[in-house]
Amino acid sequence: MESRLSSRAIARTKAVAEPRWSPAGTWLGWLESIDGRSDLVVMPGDGSGPPVVVTAEHALGRVGAYRGGMWCWVDDARLAVATAEGAVAMLGVEGGSGRLVAHAGRAAAPVAWAGGVLFASERDDALDVVEVPAAIFGGGGLDGGGREGGGPTGRRWSTADFAWDPSVTSDGRFVAWHEWDRAAMSWTSSRIVVADRATGGCRGVAGGAGIAVGQPRFSPDGARLAYVSDESGFWNVMVANADGSDARPLIAEPNDHAEPAWGPGQRSFGWSPSSDSIAICRNESGFARLVSVTLDGVATELARGWHHGIDWNARGIVAVRSGAKTPPQITVCDPTTAARRVVARGAPAGIELGAGEPTPVTWVRDGVTVPGLLYPPDELLADGELPPLLVDVHGGPTGQATVAWDGWLRYFTSRGWAVLRPNYRGSTGYGRAYARGLSLTWGVDDVDDVAAGIRAAADHRWCDSSRVAIAGGSAGGLTALLVAAKHPDLVRAVVSSYGVTDLFDLAATTHRFEAHYLDELVGTLPNASEKFRAQSPVTYAAQITVPLLVLQGDDDKVVPPRQAQLLVDAVRAAGGHVDHHVYAGEGHGWSKIETVQDELERTFAFLEEWV
Question: Last residue of some domain: 353, 377, 402?
Fold first, then answer.
């Protein structure tokens, strides 16, 4: 492979996700996504046969703007998938299917028991947990039914503004889910609720004001409930009785065991088949590790790297493993020996050649230590020569730059760039207090933290300080644009991909899930009107004097295309230089092969010209 990683290799890499064992381990299934389509493939659990696509007739869907939780096993012969049409389709591993329409909404995060299937059902005005009896899948469909009644053959469990990730015991007695109300987000104040069919009772068992919880999951024997909670200051796995009583930490430690729930279906931990241990993915300041922990709190470290979509049965712990030098791959880990085998990978062989681990770095601003990850260019430089620096600002802003595989980042490090990924205050992965450090100051503290990181890069000679560019997507675009506007001496170019530019317009047009996100980050209107103006990049259009590249999808419901156009028009009116490109059919992020390839090449050409 040539030393420069090609845009074609990155664009044609399949994403792999959501690996799941069938109940008896006869089959192993997972998702493969490329060019805007996701399919479910299955193979024999013992590896004796090749993977086979079972969703040829059903393109898979998503709930909201964020993909996740698209399928589950029903038994060893059947599985349920959330389709692009908003349905839950029952498929046979060896053919045959039936369909139910998910209450005229969009289905996600299905989970099955002998009596039926539960799933999240989203409409423009609701996100509910719905249950439909197993008999429905024998034929025909569910016509719909309103939010209040749930339809004649379905049951709506939650009465909250948002609810997803249902779980059910194998006997169907207990049902649990994750819910929250406006104006909270799932990662600020949310609840785990447990319903008991035997008594008819339903109560919140964890979470509440100022506490974030998630991922309720019953043990295989039905005796216990596990979930994550940040009540201790970190998202740790908690274990309780099946009714939610007597909860305690699985292992109390200053490390997160989960990431913010931007969508349904996150599986950062998994029960052992014997119900006496749990496998967790431990966040170690952006690095990660797979760890098994007994219910007595005895931990065994099994593997380095990020492990997503964890599922555990007698054949081993399956997950999507990735790292700075490891493209995402489906792996099975033996919990006794820690031996690991690769089941599937979507990246072409050799794409990881030349990749290096980042160096954790820190700098201090206003007494707060800000962490970051510094990636060196692939090629060694001559003595005294310093590389150009690309500052990659993560989105969210409730997110984190982690040491997981990133083809975009690799494209630039393979071309001689160093990349700095700041975890400004407000980032997750460093505990609840740090994650909430951006409350009411988005567009201020994140901007100054990143600017301080660029100055640290110059002071420590991590880069050639005369050749620095900054890039960000979504919320990261807002931060990158404000750095360019308020600290023009630090950067020579800025790239904004589907970036936030006008907070007033965003509050009025974004999708329901994030409709009140700005209440926490900036303030509530109309009282916070001055802050909305002062923390919007479009306000400073005349101060963005460095060249600007703006990339946008025309079908973005999270940050609508008008956001990009408002900024482009304002910067051009002030005499600034803007390259603006809109990708047809793309939403909040890129999915098409041609878009990914064009974005990489277009961005590189822009940076080569101006930096």
Answer: 353
